[in-house]
Inverse folding.
């Protein structure tokens, strides 16, 4: 078990394993090669764009997001959108597309330059049907149609090391997605979701529940680690939890580990005796303040996993865009 690991329920893990295995199998041929020494890629997920009402999570993020798109557009980056770009559980597609025409037009500029890929999540799986994309998304923004994938694999040109990066939204295996057949999906979308909206019942999804977030992160990490241990050189990049994870460490995990290093340094300095410790005490105190600040913001507990085979893109739902 990794440091700071969160116990994962066995049946939950099995469900996530199955969901990710099924998706991985089904998208194995959807591969793109890049020259990672030259090609820059930016991945955003979980914008949850709505209709500019009180329930619209993207509203506060719009300025920072559009500014970053402008920056990455001019600097030649390839843009990958990793799911839940629109919240089509809360809104109909037409009004959302209309509300964010400028943002979508910016995304379309990447598409025109063949620097755009898009993967759907659970909140925008409406786009799995090409007809829906052509009807709502494309005509408003561009005449160029683009597929929106279930997932994709990217790798370095020629793949000399055999390393693959799997890109999926990360909802695979959860109740809201792969466990539902097409009929159930329709019932959920048009039945349960309406009741939920009316009665303001909150979904228990990883994006909203801190302990589930950590459990879900651990489940996705464990799946990727298992694949690696079985000889598949795989790095998993997902979104969905709204919790950024870089090289298998979340933000809290990163700050906790930096704090521990500073505290150890301080202890060593004090043991030696005589040295001026004030500067280091201040650094420890500032790091502790940073940790308590992000914990109070609702970030879940520290995750620090043993192998850097899992990354999470976080979300685009805050004014600072993370
Ligand atoms: Mn999601």
């Amino acid at each position: 078990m990794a440091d700071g690991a969160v116990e994962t329920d066995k049946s939950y893990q099995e469900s996530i394993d199955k969901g990710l295995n099924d998706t991985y199998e089904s998208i194995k041929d959807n591969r793109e090669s890049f020259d990672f020494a030259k090609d820059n890629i930016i991945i955003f997920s979980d914008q949850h764009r709505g209709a500019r009402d009180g329930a619209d999570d993207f509203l506060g993020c719009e300025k920072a997001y559009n500014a970053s798109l402008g920056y990455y557009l001019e600097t030649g980056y390839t843009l990958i959108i990793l799911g839940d770009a629109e919240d089509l559980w809360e809104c109909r597609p037409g009004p959302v597309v209309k509300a964010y025409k400028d943002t979508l037009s910016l995304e379309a500029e990447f598409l025109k330059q063949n620097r755009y890929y898009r993967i759907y999540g659970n909140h925008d799986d409406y786009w799995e049907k090409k007809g829906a994309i052509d009807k709502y998304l494309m005509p408003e923004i561009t005449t160029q149609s683009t597929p929106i994938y279930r997932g994709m694999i990217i790798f370095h040109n020629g793949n000399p090391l055999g390393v693959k990066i799997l890109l999926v939204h990360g909802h695979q295996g959860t109740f809201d997605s792969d466990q539902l057949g097409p009929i159930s999906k329709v019932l959920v979308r048009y039945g349960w979701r309406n009741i939920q909206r009316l009665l303001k019942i909150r979904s228990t999804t990883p994006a909203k529940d801190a302990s589930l977030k950590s459990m879900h992160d651990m489940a996705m990490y464990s799946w990727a680690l298992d694949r690696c241990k079985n000889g598949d050189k795989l790095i998993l990049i997902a979104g969905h939890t709204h919790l950024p994870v870089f090289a298998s460490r979340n933000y809290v995990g990163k700050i906790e580990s930096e704090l521990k290093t500073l505290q150890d340094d301080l202890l060593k300095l004090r043991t030696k005796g005589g040295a001026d410790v004030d500067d280091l005490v201040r650094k420890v105190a500032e790091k502790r303040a940073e940790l308590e600040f992000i914990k109070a913001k609702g970030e879940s507990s520290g995750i620090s996993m043993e192998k850097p085979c899992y990354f999470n893109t976080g979300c685009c739902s805050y004014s600072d865009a993370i």
In short: The pocket of manganese (II) ion is lined by residues 84, 121-123, 169, 171, 240 (CB under 6 Å).
